[in-house]
Structure formats: structure tokens, C-alpha cells
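Why does residue order matter? Because the sequence determines the fold. Keep that principle in mind as you read this record.
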Amino acid sequence: IVAAHNLRQWSLDRYRLVPERKSSEPNFAHLDRIDLIGGNGRWRQKRAEEEFARRAIEEEKKLRELQEAEEKRRQRKLAFQARRRRQQEEEDRRRKEERERQRQETVRMEELRRIEEQRDRVRREQEEKEWLARQPKPCEVCSGSGKCVACLGVGTNPALFLASECGYKTPKDYGRRPQGCDGCYGFKQNLLAELKKGTGRCPNCDGWGKIRPDIDLTSPMGRTKRNSIAQAATGFFNSSV
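Structure:
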């Protein structure tokens, strides 16, 4: 069990591992500058010169390795900075593209909103125009008064009947006599018939003073025809077309 915790010693004991051999070369690391100047003899001076030459080579080698390592660190730092700069430029480019996309989207939405508002405005103007076109118009015959222009709403017009001679023996009454106005559906009865008065209302608008537009019933919007002012005596509430 103890050998299991020291596998190296166990392998050495069983000759499974070759024991490390110590270097046979002499170690002159203890030589110092006194030996170099010959203070401890010629032999130690010679060994010190060799040792110091070896040390100089090792120091130069270490210095070169340090310089190479420093250069590698500098190159890595430069590469890292370049990579960070590229990443920053890529992020700036993406942010710029995103801002441009948002600006274009805002412009597109504003354009769509403007077009929609213009379409709504045109539609409202068209609906208002259609509504105004469907509204009754003042009668052009009576100028909106609703009275017959021939009799001024009375229903009769005075007529002068002249007799061949005047006297108490005249069998009929001559002179100014009221006659029915034929402009508002009355009759001129002369002297023989009874008085047939007219309605006194304008025959063009039936006394309402306005004319109903001639609406095109086949149109889904109920648009009026070109001749929207009917000249016939249809009346304001007359449903006949």
C-alpha cells in the first residue's frame, strides 16, 4: 500500500525507470570577478574567462529571447488593437445602417400617412361635393319664393273686358274681371264660366322654392346627373322621376 503511493520509487526498485544521471561536466557557476582578474590563480582565471564568456552568451541569448517575447507581445497587442478597431468600425457601420434604416422607415411611414391623409381629404371633399349636389337647389323660375311669377301667388290675373256700349241695359258685367292664372293650373273662364283660380304656387317647384336634383338611382353613390335641376313641375317632395 505504501509503494502504491510512491510509484516512482516502486518503478525504480523494479528497474522499470532509468535513474537520472548527473552531468559529469564541472560547474563553474561559483566563479566570480576576482577569479576573472586572476586573484585565485591562473587556472581559476582561465575557467572564469570561459564561464564569463558562457554567461555573456547566455545573457545575450536571454536578452534576445526577451526581445523576441516583447516583440511577440507587441505584435499581439497591435493585432488585438486592430481587431478591436475593426470590431468598433463594424459596430459603427451597423449602428449607422440601423439609423439609416430607421430613418427610411420613418420617411416611408410619413409618406404613407401623407398619402392616406390626402386620400381621406379627397374622399371627404368628394363626399361633400356629392352631398351638396344631392341637396335641393333654389328654383330658378321663382327665385326661391315658391309663388307663381304670373300671378304673384294670388292664383288670378285681372283681365279687361270691353263692352260695345255702356248702360244699365248691358246684360253682362264688363270691365276688369279676375281670371284664373293658367301659369299655376288655373283657367281663363272669361265671362261665361265660374272662376277657376290657380294654385298660386310656382309650377316648377310646386310652391316649395327649391328643386329636387335628378339623382341617378343606378349609381352606388347616388350621384346626380348632369342636368341636376329638373325643369318640370315635379315638386319638392314628389317621388316621381
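The longest strand covers residues 156-161.
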